[in-house]
């Protein structure tokens, strides 16, 4: 089944059993540019994904 990452309106299917950071990289995204959340709670990059996990990615905005 795997897990799903969502960034804005784009969805990325990723395998379960890997870290959030690895999943973000496999989706072709920069882990430093997004904040992963699950059920509204921030999760760390070393969190292991489980089957059916839905991770929403929030873009980090920086400026100067």
Give the helices and strands, then pairings.
Elements: E1 3-7, E2 10-14, H1 20-26, E3 34-38, E4 41-42, E5 54-59
Description:
By secondary structure, the chain is mainly beta. It has one domain: Phosphatidylinositol 3-kinase Catalytic Subunit, Chain A, domain 1 (Ubiquitin-like (UB roll), Roll). The protein is built from one helix and five strands; from the N terminus they run E-E-H-E-E-E. It has a five-stranded mixed β-sheet with strand order 2-1-5-3-4, covered by helices on one side. Strand 3 (34-38) and strand 4 form a beta hairpin. It is globular. It starts with a strand and ends in a 5-residue tail after the last strand. The model has no long low-confidence stretch (mean pLDDT 95).
Number of helices: 1
Q: What do the pLDDT scores average to?
A: 95
Using only C-alpha atoms, the radius of gyration works out to: 11 Å
CATH level 4 superfamily: Phosphatidylinositol 3-kinase Catalytic Subunit, Chain A, domain 1
Q: Keyphrases for this structure?
A:
mainly beta, Ubiquitin-like (UB roll), 64 residues
Write a brief caption for the model:
This protein is mostly beta strands. The chain has a single domain (3-59), classed as Ubiquitin-like (UB roll), CATH 3.10.20.90. The chain is built from 1 helix and 5 strands, in the order ββαβββ.
């Amino acid at each position: 089944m795997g897990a799903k990452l969502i960034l804005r309106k784009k969805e990325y299917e990723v395998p379960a059993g890997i870290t959030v950071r690895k999943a973000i990289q496999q989706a072709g995204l920069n882990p430093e540019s997004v904040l992963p959340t699950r059920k509204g709670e921030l999760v760390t990059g070393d969190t292991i994904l489980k089957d059916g996990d839905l991770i929403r990615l929030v873009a980090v905005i920086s400026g100067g």
